[in-house]
């Protein structure tokens, strides 16, 4: 799209208008707040820039249509975290990452649906209803979930409603939905992106991320949103390299680790097949592929859910009906608290608050929360020791393909669904999910590349190599007639022609 805008093949206004039309007609329930006027204003400004400035001075995101997960506060625009508790909340300030995105010239089409307060793995916990995946199960034509909690972000990118989307990743909420929707999702090192203005779920795990249709696009978006922010106490002051300049697909001499603990029961045979296929491809292209061990992986799920639930119970204590958000009037203050929280929070949020409050209680703090933090340190040390001998780790993004939208899996099964993404989150490591093929049901399958701290450039490069190993997955894109090829020609698309590679 950027190349097309530079060559004046089409204008930013035409590009954004086409996407606004797609968003208005979308059937995925991906957008819950639409901002066409803001997008058009950015598009007009982009066209002015292209008409008077040299190409090398123009941001690669200027005029590019994007969506923002409804977890990021946007000044003057409703931000709900997809909860009844914040149904009518309008922030008076902008989150740092969305501000950086808008200042780069990106055109914000609106706010994207998500699991309530980012708690879920299917995007079925939203107060505004579930998001649908663009992919459909081949055998019975059933709709499948887009994954969560950034399901709206992943579905909107896969459905060609926007070029890229901002998401958040606490235990895999960027990578898992990207895997289910056949797109690319990256979570940078904890602290690379500011958390300021991002509605808190679990503060020691929350990290902004991006979802796009290619690895190179992810690099461009990540360059924009990373950087030090004095408003975030854990923000890293490490310089942010130009990630896109490191992408060449060369993996010669790199050592790729395959952890034996990830070959667990319940993993799809098709995922294992593609895991082995991509590992072989990397080996054929000069990488060394070795088996490694991450012995404390089996504790990752219980440790994660204890820590995130404990931090949830603390963070969500602020929603009491007093200062902002929903208020249910009652005769006494205590009754007002109780009724407000009972009505404002959904089932999954209440479940995690209860677990967290129990884990933090005076009689159980040492037994649960403190012990979970100790084991978290062991999980982190497993990775640190592994990276003394290897460069990257290759694992699946999810144990199976996306499940049916109408299926009602047990909450415990939903927790286990995060088994491959949670360890990197607990350790604060950068990780990227890349589509690697289709299942027999015609649904996307994906692998994940995990790197050492602050090596986003490296995982992007290995992911690019993995990307070239697969047969290209391209959605039909009937929702939006935008060409998704390397040399886009929007003319035929605007006239009603099908997009093509």
CATH superfamily of one domain: Amidase signature (AS) domain
Beta-strand content: 5-15%
Output the helix-strand order: HHEHEHEHEHEEHEHEHHHHEHHEEHH
Fraction of helical residues:
25-40%
| Order of neighbouring strands in the sheet with most strands | 1-3-2-4-6-5-10-11-9-7-8
Number of helices: 16
- In the CATH hierarchy, the third-tier topology of one domain is known as Amidase signature (AS) enzymes
Distance between the termini: 13 Å
Estimate the mean pLDDT confidence: 91
Q: Oligomerization state of this entry?
A: single chain
Structural class: alpha/beta
Compact description:
The chain is 36% helix and 12% strand. By secondary structure, it is of the alpha/beta class.
What does this 3D model show about the protein?
With 501 residues, this protein is an alpha/beta fold. The chain has a domain at 1-249 and 401-484: Amidase signature (AS) domain (Amidase signature (AS) enzymes, Alpha-Beta Complex), CATH 3.90.1300. It is built from 16 helices and 11 strands. The protein has helices at 2-6, 12-24, 36-52, 96-103, 151-158, 175-181, 215-225, 269-284, 300-315, 333-344, 347-360, 366-386, 411-416, 422-427, 456-469, 490-494; strands at residues 31-34, 65-69, 107-112, 164-169, 184-187, 207-212, 255-259, 288-292, 392-396, 431-438, 444-451. Strands 1-3-2-4-6-5-10-11-9-7-8 form an 11-stranded mixed β-sheet, with helices on both faces. Strand 2, helix 4 and strand 3 (107-112) form a beta-alpha-beta unit. Helix 9 (300-315) packs across helix 11. The longest helix is centred in the C-terminal third of the chain and has 21 residues, at 366-386. The radius of gyration is 22 Å and the shape is globular. The chain starts with a helix and ends in a 7-residue tail after the last helix.
